[in-house]
Amino acid sequence: MNVSLPEDLDQFVTDQLREGGYNNQSEIVREGLRLLRSRLEKRRRLNAALDIGFADVKAGRKKLLSGELLDDIAERGRQRARTRSGRNA
Q: Does pTM surpass 0.85?
């Protein structure tokens, strides 16, 4: 496999070799590919979770977090705090 890199990435590889974190260019490329694979897997899991969440919203099992809903949650929290502190105002 041959890989062509733009000048800035080529310089980055050279710098990494000079700093001693890697023994050769192949180690750097492998590390980059491992990180990319990990990132893509995380994105895949996130998208799957979003699909489940949107299906739950569509089926009426969950609500979207709207500004109105967040305001309601905040107000209920303030009411509970007042109740705990003995101020039912």
A: no
